[in-house]
């Protein structure tokens, strides 16, 4: 049985993955497909969040994660056996490190954290605009990116995890099939990280699509086709 689990990004409703889920279901009619909302992050504790997610996963799933969901999907490979991992618009480190400059500047991220604490609603609207920046019709797309209902404290805890996560060593050691899809006009995950990701793990496949950080909403059919091809190739190789 093919189990496909989709994980959303920070601040955006899991419903935004529905178009991609439907496109994948068309390509795998017999697959069990699940959209798994992220935890509400009652504390900035990675282990707690991973345990909550793991308890809801089927056996040996394909994990497909968007942005923070992709970073958590990689972490989950250490918790249970998985068939493979696909990330969309996801970086090894979301914020810059001295040895990983291909990410969001720490000052910009700090301003975002302050905005969540002071004005969560307006900050999430601004985040939606950033997600859609680079799309053909960014404002229309931003309106479709429904916010995830959470308190300012929960949003802040989620951002703390996003800042803490560093998947570089994990990517270098990961043995399961992995596909990392990046967007060429992404305003949150610089396309420049693609070559650095490839250097981390020569086993990974990296693909780029024309679009914004909200690629999952822009091109669900094209994404599903690329993912289906990768999943079938990985299954044939076993």
TrEMBL record:
InterPro entries from the UniProt entry: AB_hydrolase_1, AB_hydrolase_fold
Pfam (any one): Abhydrolase_1
Highest taxon, organism lineage: Bacteria
Annotated signal sequence range: none
Residue span, AB hydrolase-1 domain: 32-219
Name of the protein this chain belongs to: AB hydrolase-1 domain-containing protein
Origin species: Thiopseudomonas alkaliphila
